[in-house]
Amino acid sequence: MTAGPQARKFARAALKVAVTMRAVEGFLARFEYLAQAFRTNRAFRHLLITHRVPLDNKMEVLRQAFRDDLTELEFVVLRMLMEQQLGIQLPGVAKSLAFLAQAEYAQLILTVFTPQPLSQKELQALGGRVEQSLGRSLQVKGVTDPSLIGGIKLRLGNILVDGSIARRLELLREELV
Length: 177
Description:
alpha+beta; Peroxidase, domain 1; single chain; 177 residues; Glutaredoxin; 2 domains; 4-stranded mixed beta sheet
């Protein structure tokens, strides 16, 4: 989903709050987690955009569902999104947050492409290993790409490391031909 002007404006305000709270990295990771849930979970998506469920009831459901995964900051941002009837913009807000953080706060984003979704714990572990080797903190973002069949691709800025089975087969074909 493309980030529209409302999503960018909302993201800018949310990022300023996260910077003030010194919680940018965690906030970005958790918001990307929410965006992934939005893309893959129909019930979650419907809850954010429906007008039939009162806002307080929505928040109660969200707090029960995400109590171990989100901080108060994310709950406040979700509430504001729904108050302004921008729940459908969640993926655009997450995309804008990542872009703004990278542009304004020089934060590197490691994008991990896998054929199956990785858990937050797995993403953080992988990101931690890359952070150790670079000596710099990163934001880790997981992207599910079923076309990979197997293996993994990593993108950090303009660098792409392709360890997918498809790429290995392509290299083998080039070698044999």
